[in-house]
Amino acid sequence: MRLFLLAVLFSCSCARAGCEPKIVNIGAVLSQKRYEQVFKDAVTQANQVYGRDKFKLTAISVTHKPNAIQMALSVCEDLISSQVYAILVSHPPQSNDHLTPTPVSYTAGFYRIPVVGLTTRMSIYSDKSIHLSFLRTVPPYSHQAHVWFDLMREFNWNHIILIVSDDHEGRAAQKRLETLLEERETKNKKRNYENLDQLSYDNKRGPKVYLHGQCTPPTNFPNVATRNQPKPVTSRPRNVPLLVALQPVPLDRFPFYLCLPFSNKIDQARTKQAEKVLQFSQETNLTALLLEAKELEARVIILSASEEDAAAVYKAARFLNMTGSGYVWLVGEREMSGKALSEAPDGLIGLQLINGKNESAHINDAVAVVAQSIQELFEKENITEPPRGCVGNTNIWKTGPLFKRVLMSSKYPEGLTGRVEFNDDGDRKYAHYSILNYQKSRLIQVGIYNGTQVVMNNQRKIIWPGGETEKPQGFQMSTRLKIVTIHQEPFVYVKPTMPDGTCKEEMTLNGVLIKKVICTGPNETIPGRPIVPQCCYGFCIDLLIKLAMTMNFTYEVHLVADGKFGTQERVNNSNKKEWNGMMGELLGGLADMIVAPLTINNERAQYIEFSKPFKYQGLTILVKKEIPRSTLDSFMQPFQSTLWLLVGLSVHVVAVMLYLLDRFSPFGRFKVNSEEEEEDALTLSSAMWFSWGVLLNSGIGEGAPRSFSARILGMVWAGFAMIIVASYTANLAAFLVLDRPEERITGINDPRLRNPSDKFIYATVKQSSVDIYFRRQVELSTMYRHMEKHNYESAAEAIQAVRDNKLHAFIWDSAVLEFEASQKCDLVTTGELFFRSGFGIGMRKDSPWKQNVSLAILSSHENGFMEDLDKTWVRYQECDSRSNAPATLTFENMAGVFMLVAGGIAAGIFLIFIEIAYKRHKDARRKQMQLAFAAVNVWRKNLQDRKSGRAEPDPKKKASFRSISTTLASSIKRRRSSKDTHRGVKRGRRQGLLPQGERKRDEEGEGEGEVEVEARDPSPRSLRR
Q1: pTM of this prediction exceeds 0.70
Q2: Which phi and psi angles does 488 have, rounded to 5°?
Q3: Is 757 helix (H, G, I), strand (E, B) or coil?
């Protein structure tokens, strides 16, 4: 029995122990002692709602200590040693550095214990690389940018000037506002594309009326179409739809109507942007900073600074009269409290976080969120105990990161401070703000921000700076515009100024004085590219002067600093992209208008506003003309080398055949008269001369064939020569006179472009509209990858590369390339135009000049001004007229013929010296032989006389060897002269030039003379006879 009672008591005690909830400690670091009781009451209330059976919350609190070291020790000894699951920390009323929640965040964050901030609004606590386990029930100061952005949309302000302090708070506010502007712009682009696609689809189906809600089409169309003075935006409720009339369709007289909610209309038609971001520090001259802001068109100024800095800015703005009519000042909570409020201008619009300093309310909401999260945490497995103390403990709480994620994902919609939720940085979302207007030294609430949008109180009027009751426009149309342009002939010429700083007067081809303006920009001809005044003129400058006269504005022109048209490029290899070139200067506020040959495309139109095109054009391809190079053998081009060899071989073959036929024919010269000498017959050299003479049409002299067979061959050879010469003459004209270079490229679809290789290089200009076009087109991706490696910095460099044969083809705007081809006759454009577009004037979105510029351009098209500009600057036809003129032969074409003649002369001179030398050598040998034969004859005669028994010869008759030689030489001369006379007589007798009687006497005299010579001639021939 006793054992039974003990078992019952033990089981009851175990059951009672198992039913007791787990004790969960929650720590708090509060600003004052009086909030400790609020914290305990909040914990008690949470225990009644959450975890009745599983856990019980226990409150452990301390107050802020005088310095950071004492605060960190108190967190370790009083809170972490008690194994707290989370620590709540408030921000003291006085924002001293040593009283901030930083020591609590660092100490608890080391062990991964979540820290919940109550009233801490500094943006540095959103950096999770520093504050690992920190989250808070209030938003940071930088989140006021959400309210500023919605106020801009509410009042339809599209351009702002952002003035921020150069500290963490200022940079955080700037980053947050720029992010909101970029997100809104991206959404607008997507929505515009969707609307354009829908309208394009419906245009194909025919005119149609679109209705939205209670919207109905107007009964009187002209009244809608001619709205000249629309009512202010603030006079219409946000939920009233707006009727938008679009352009009429040619198929019908009625226009399209598209009804959209008012807020959507603003989002689509307007793009918010910061015209200028000005940062300042303690050393900044605020007066100079605000003077820079005063020169801008925007009149909406957003200020993010501390109390002291805001007060200094207000003083400087009041001194520059920037707090009066037309200006708008939007500030946050710090900029309209304490010292700043005493200097704030009337009409200022500021923000104040609702319950932002209500520490009791934030304690209750924070405890409720922690209790809710602990209940969700205990439903998970493997929950470890928090660390106990800091001494000797370096291990983090393994469940701490999990608990932090549970806290950040929790939602508490019924909080005393409103809906409690956290973003990814642990900051409070959907915070409520009061919108306050500073009127006569009082703050009047004129609206609220409910966490998603601004709701204005229409019963309370806003008093704007200067005492105005009407909403300011937010901008002031400046009549002094900053114009940016780029060096691109013939649209913009850039020349240096004269020594006195003026531009040299020049005339156009039509005799009109060229209008020039001073433009500052980098001088490319000087090392270092210094910014100097230069002279600009051309198509775009004349257009700018015309627009300035029409629209009554003044201007200052400068050249773009980086020499680029403008494209987006990544910043420091990040995902963020920024515009460079003229686009970047326009969007950055360095220019108000782009007046240059800027191509209109989708990418640029999403960020800036284009006027109507002032010139329509497309893309074309520039190549170098293939001018044939005349060589020394140009005259031989009509025939191939094989044909020339065959003709030369034929000449010699025919000559040999003529010689053989004439020699062996019975009627040849060898057979007709057997008494004729060999020299008068058709020799091989005579046949060769005959063959060349017939071919070259040089006339036939001596040595014509006598036989019938040889003459037949000669006639056939003459016919062959006629055909060859006629063919050569015709082809020579075709090759040297009518030869035209063929275009190397047929167009964008040429195989050499579609299938790129290193043997054919083509390119465009880096970061230009052409570069963007090829990058966006999927079917041209292969071409783009090839071009990307060879692109040039400017069009002038690429054109010069084409002329230097470093680049085979250059793809660029047709207007520029056609002009260059007309000026540089070694270049030519080829192929049909593609990617047709136009040049437009660029302005910022919703520029007040946009409509007037487009109307002025349309008017210039109608009155012929644009056509006059084309005739003056673009339409030059110098090279075209030359190419259409008949081509003529030049010395380069016929230089080979002259060289051939010179070679013939040189060869003749060389051969004459050889002939003379050979003749002298032959004569010397003959004289030696004759002397030898004479001596032999004398010796033989003497020998015969001795054998015959004759007496010694008479000394008087005895001749010396010298006298014999002299007698022999004279006889040889007489024989030569008689032979020449004999040949001349025979030739005259053959040609019938001598009478018959003279012929006989000549023949008789010829025979007698020859007999006489032979009788006296002791030559070997006479001896042989």
Answers
A1: no
A2: -155, 100
A3: strand
